[in-house]
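Board notes, transcribed. Complex of a protein with guanosine-5'-triphosphate.
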Amino acid sequence: MNKEQSVPELSIVFPCLNEEASLARCLSTARAACQQAGVSFELVVADNGSTDNSIEIARAEGARVVPVEQKGYGSALHHGILAAQGTYVAFCDADGSYPVEFFAEMWKRIKREQVDLLLANRLIAPMEKNAMPFLNRYAGTPVLSALIRWLFSFPVYDCNSGMRIMRRDKYEALGLKHTGMAYASEMLCAAAIKGLSYKECPMSHFSKDSRGGRPPHLNRWRDGWAHLCVIIKMFWESKKEGKK
Ligand SMILES: Nc1nc2c(ncn2[C@@H]2O[C@H](COP(=O)(O)OP(=O)(O)OP(=O)(O)O)[C@@H](O)[C@H]2O)c(=O)[nH]1
Ligand SMILES: [Mg+2]
């Protein structure tokens, strides 16, 4: 059953900057996952100015391409999600590092568990060697996640996970502004502040090398610092708001 319709139940958004090596596989796997789950869907590629063949590949795979001028992971995802028409919106990186087929399981879980936001946690499932740099896996992500748990009393254990599914109607009220990687933490802090219901589920994570991806972009210190600043700023602002 191919249930692609004008108002889909699920939009899957891929932020994309030059991902010709992995994009076709991400899109065909997402399509198969939706068909397996029996959900009506649309595929959206939020293209951040790719200069390789990503746009042609996206169109050939039947995805809707949303051009996003302002550079950055957060900017690409934000505009992709705003353009999404589904009742639910799911997203993950287009670089081959996430098991896109897991969307079928996430779809079943979010429907069954009736939460607003469900995140795939990479740290509590078997992970392929080299899927995540040692310091990010054992220091950066756990420490930043613990900070969110402590400041916002919100059960976050993998704040950098890029694979999530949420109710589209809850998105705009989050008021997300960060254009870079710290958007990932900003979304979780905002979800805590707005009282969204939230869960995580274990998901295996893969090395891009084994899935035909490209070399890493991540700048550990710059991005880690940006996450920290966003978390503290949002905590500070929420306290000020609370006192008004
Ligand atoms: N880095 C980066 N990624 C972007 C941008 N715009 C869109 N993206 C996409 O956002 C997703 C996440 O970016 P990645 O570079 O994989 O970020 P990461 O997973 O933290 O880092 P590495 O996988 O280690 O490079 C990918 O699908 C990118 O193609 C951008 O301006 N910068
Ligand atoms: Mg990546």
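The two ends are 53 Å apart (CA to CA). Residues 15-17, 19, 48, 71-73, 76, 93-95, 97, 162, 181, 216-218 surround guanosine-5'-triphosphate (ligand 1) (CB under 6 Å).
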